[in-house]
Design goal:
With about 110 residues, this protein is an alpha+beta fold. It has helices at about 25-35, 75-85, and strands spanning about 5-15, 40-45, 45-50, 55, 70-75, 95-100. β3 and β4 (about 55) form a beta hairpin.
Length: about 110
């Protein structure tokens, strides 16, 4: 039995726009509509720094906050790679890690 999983992380900012709505919402909708993966989790950071070196952090005094967001999903490598192909052209930074021998057990639906 093959227990390999592929974990994918998509790095965004809150203000990133897709074609019709926020990019995060477009990614979630696309993965849901195509039943592309078992599940998706979105993490909202309190601070972060990207390749530009600009630090983005939550600040009570700022009304317009553009914090980092990570959309994370995992599944069997073949399924996760198909989901990555769905996201091609939507996002610029995807990171994937192959995890070996991790049991994936899904209960309920």
């Amino acid at each position: 039995m093959n227990n390999d999983i592929l974990m994918v992380r998509v790095y965004l900012h809150e203000a990133d726009q897709g074609k019709r709505k926020r990019l995060m919402q477009e990614i979630l909708a696309l993965l849901q509509e195509r039943h592309a993966v078992q599940g998706v989790t979105v993490f909202r950071a309190i601070a972060g720094m990207g390749a530009s070196g600009e630090v983005r952090a939550e600040d009570v005094l700022r009304l317009n906050v553009d914090l980092p967001i990570v959309v994370e999903f995992f599944d069997e490598p073949k399924v996760a790679e198909a989901a990555i192909a769905l996201l091609d052209g939507l996002v610029s930074l995807l990171a994937s890690v192959i995890e070996d021998r991790i049991g994936l057990r899904v209960e309920g639906s």
